[in-house]
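To illustrate the input format used throughout this study, we show a single complete record. The first block contains the structure-token representation of the backbone; no residue identities are included at this stage. The design step must infer an amino acid for every position from geometry alone.
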């Protein structure tokens, strides 16, 4: 009997583990996710730690510019004053308390955003309201979820604040309420909540491209916009080689030889940023500059000094190759499968629906050139 009971327990544990793995995999296969939160008492920080142990996501913490305030003092007098100022003039930026500059200013790379916020007197904490007032417009078209931490008060007022500040989004599901009585069970609450959410689908475009200079390749994490989708389609046909020159002491730039769709905005470009200028020029930054650009992506993992070396800062006639693999000719041939006639691939190994109109590609294991 003891052996039977042990076997049943093992089967139950295996079933539960597999069920959790399926749920987790479903979340992992969704689009890129950002968790943004504010935490005053550290409760929200603990919630985010439990959340990000179960899903893959970037995390950004919001901080007030004035860190000396004791919002709970005198029966929450300061916190109430901040909330009343917002209620009096909700469309005026001056009504919202100042926050520190955020680490992620461009939300275009994210499909899903999870907001984690405390409740103040049945409303969303004023600090998080400031962030959403400033950046909520960038969430339009995205999938958004909400987790609210409170002592005991209901969260309807916080949900209403979120809906006022974040418009034209798909709410992924009901807000999750974590309070003083169930905070210690937050991990299981989150685990049960996540499968109920409607996460955005995984990106269909490539999230990486590579820049190769003098035989050295560096990965670029692409943002998700029409310019990068069009660029990826171009690179699926063949790598693109351009000649760039140093300019202004902060970038190398030059003509792509073709145009991409623009979604220009005022951008404070930083070292490593890859930018589209005037629709047909690529700029790769080793310094900083502010201008109206369309963001393409960012070079991964190089310091400013390493970027200057890699980009040959200050030099001219720099040969730069853009591709979807770390080598411009990663695949020389593809073994054809007997049941797959007319199988087309790019040089980076991407399966193509049809032969491209121009460029180098592979058909049934044979490299061809379309002119």
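Output of the design step:
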């Amino acid at each position: 009997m003891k052996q039977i009971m042990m076997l049943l327990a093992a089967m139950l544990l295996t079933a539960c583990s597999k069920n959790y793995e399926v749920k987790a995999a479903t979340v992992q296969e969704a689009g890129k996710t950002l968790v943004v939160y504010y935490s005053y008492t550290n409760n929200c920080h603990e919630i985010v730690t439990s959340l990000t142990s179960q899903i893959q996501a970037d995390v950004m913490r919001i901080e007030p510019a004035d860190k000396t305030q004791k919002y709970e003092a005198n029966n929450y007098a300061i916190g109430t004053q901040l909330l009343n100022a917002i209620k009096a003039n909700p469309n005026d930026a001056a009504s919202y308390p100042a926050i520190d500059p955020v680490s992620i200013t461009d939300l275009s790379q994210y499909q899903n955003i999870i907001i984690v916020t405390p409740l103040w007197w049945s409303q969303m904490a004023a600090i998080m309201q400031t962030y959403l007032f400033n950046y909520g417009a960038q969430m339009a078209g995205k999938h958004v979820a909400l987790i609210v931490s409170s002592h005991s008060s209901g969260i309807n007022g916080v949900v209403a604040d979120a809906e006022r500040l974040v418009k034209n989004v798909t709410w992924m599901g009901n807000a999750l309420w974590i309070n003083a009585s169930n905070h210690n069970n937050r991990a299981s609450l989150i685990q049960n909540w996540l499968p109920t959410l409607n996460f955005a689908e995984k990106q269909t475009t490539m999230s990486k491209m590579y820049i190769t200079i003098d035989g050295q390749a560096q990965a670029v994490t692409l943002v998700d916009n029409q310019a990068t989708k069009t660029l990826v389609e171009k690179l699926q046909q063949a790598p693109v080689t351009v000649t760039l020159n140093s300019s202004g002491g902060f970038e190398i730039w030059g003509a792509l030889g073709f145009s991409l769709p623009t979604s220009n905005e005022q951008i404070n470009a930083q070292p490593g940023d890859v930018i589209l200028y005037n629709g047909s020029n690529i700029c790769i930054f080793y310094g900083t500059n502010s201008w109206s650009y369309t963001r393409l992506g960012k070079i991964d993992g190089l310091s400013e000094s390493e970027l200057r070396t890699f980009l040959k800062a200050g030099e001219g006639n720099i040969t730069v190759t853009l591709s979807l693999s770390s080598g411009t000719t990663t695949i020389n041939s593809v073994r054809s499968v007997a049941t797959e006639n007319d199988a087309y691939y790019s040089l980076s190994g991407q399966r193509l629906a049809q032969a491209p109109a121009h460029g180098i590609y592979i058909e049934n294991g044979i490299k061809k050139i379309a002119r």
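Structural context for interpreting the output: Confidence is low (pLDDT under 50) at residues 1-26, 328-341. The two ends are 75 Å apart (CA to CA).
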